[in-house]
Design brief:
The chain is an alpha+beta fold. Helices cover 24% and strands 30% of the residues. The relative contact order is 0.14. Bound molecules: 2-OXO-4-methylpentanoic acid (COI).
Amino acid sequence: MAISIKINKTQHSRIHKVDFENIQFGTIFSDHMFRVDYSDGEWKNPQILPYGDILLAPSLSALHYGQSIFEGMKAFKDQNGKAQLFRPVENIERMNLSAKRMAMPELPEEIFIEGLKQLVKIDEQWIPTKIGSALYLRPFMFATDDYVGVRPSKNFTFIIFTCPVNSYYPKPINVIVEEKYVRAFNGGVGFVKAAGNYGASMLPTFEAQQKGYDQIIWTDGREHEYVEESGTTNLFFVIGDTVLTPNIDGTILQGITRKSCIQVLKDRGFKVEERKISMKEIAEAYDKGILKDAFGTGTAAIIAKIAGINYKGKDLILPPVEEREVSNLLYNTLGGIYTSQVEDKFGWIMKI
Ligand code: COI
């Protein structure tokens, strides 16, 4: 189906005001956004318009009951300066999984991909090219019923805006194992990108930061024993020659970077296990001197190397980041594929 998108370009680009050398993640927004609205059971009026404020009713249902979901993606430039996307179909599939769980309408893949491509094309000058930087793309959908009763909204808005970004974590992070708060429980919404998951993580993360840590390692809600995610990223450990990551079991986000890392590692002959991982196992590996690497993976962070883990008051200090085989290999391989410096043997790049 051909999608016809109405385009209203800004007459006042802000790009000349941006210092691309000093970008703080999530603070600078490019010139345009894509928007499509849902009513009477249909997505209507796809349009690209200047980035700007939107008018919301105080009774807007998303603000009260949290029917709101999002995605995180990135656009890059290849070696000839042409814009490209990384695995965008994975994002629309995951967004529709989130939509289903949150009783929101699915967005047809062709509207998502066409809107995204045209938006990135229009603002392609905004894609930074410094190593580790990208144009971060933020698709999100929220309920717009002007109604305070609790029931699924009948009206929704979907928007994509974009921001030039550098690394989410400029340096290796120190984390603390969380044994009081819980991120997700089986049967809940931890496996999808519901806005509320992030809202609920803020107090625990703030408390960890007050203690001097950058992020937390979430553990399971029943025993606080099995590791789940770290901050906003999926989690990997290297013990001896085995790469371990928690299996996707209903509480863990199905990270696209996670999935890509597993594929790269298997392709390179690494042994990768997706299974329950207890903090006891991690601490024992540390005591034996075989905990070689630990890192988070995510679109924004790419590979967030973990410098140290505080577990029950003890700091497990990991090897220096420059000596780490797995996280460095992944960072270099993914970074290379993003910008076509490394062959895209898995077919992950979509040209614009
Ligand atoms: C992403 O990696 O895109 C995320 O969702 C993290 C974000 C909350 C900054």
